[in-house]
UniProtKB/TrEMBL annotation:
GO function term, MF aspect, one: tRNA (uridine) methyltransferase activity
Binding site for Mg(2+): D117, D143, N144
Keywords, in A-Z order: Magnesium, Metal-binding, Methyltransferase, S-adenosyl-L-methionine, Transferase, tRNA processing
Organism: Selenomonas ruminis
Protein name: tRNA 5-hydroxyuridine methyltransferase
Enzymatic reactions: 5-hydroxyuridine(34) in tRNA + S-adenosyl-L-methionine = 5-methoxyuridine(34) in tRNA + S-adenosyl-L-homocysteine + H(+)
Documented EC number(s): 2.1.1.-
Gene of this entry: trmR
Function text: Catalyzes the methylation of 5-hydroxyuridine (ho5U) to form 5-methoxyuridine (mo5U) at position 34 in tRNAs.
Amino acid sequence: MELLFREMEQYAAENHVPIINERGRKAFLQVVREQKPHRVLEVGMAIGYSTLQIAVNSADDVKITTMELSEERVKTARSYIARSGYDDRIRILTGDAGELLAHEAVQDAPFDFVFIDAAKGQYVDYFHKIEPLLSDSAVILADNVLFRGYVCSEEKPPRRFKTIVKRLREYLELVTKTPGYSTVILENGDGLAVTRREKSKC
């Protein structure tokens, strides 16, 4: 698998495909290994790099439902996944994540691990649609939540990033203030928000 991962990293660099960066990867994998999930939902697959990292580091019976808007990236991801030995454990959904979360993903729930790495301005919407699909002790890992440092900075972001920064701040406020959840923000990479669903004591 290491050779396949290196090949994917090279492809991503040469073709400007965003994958979880080296600084954030260690923290990302630590959370996955601690959780050892059985049922995973991934929002934003790109070329399948994080998908396969999750597959390798999860429980032996892991099943992953992943979604990606770009048909071209799905095609590339399928070629890598077919060589990985995990293709029978990964279900790929192609299309808009907001729509897929409301319909197609439901049949694979409940999920004990969710990785969000898609349209940053839609994280709040994703959370609301993901919440009914979670197991009692699920973990939601959201990438890029600090967005180049602008989210926690008093410095005004460039106009083209203003909406994204505003919505990511809304997401962090949501996951830190919603009852029944606890959130830790890791500053590794571009920021990872680790949100854990707390079991009811009733």
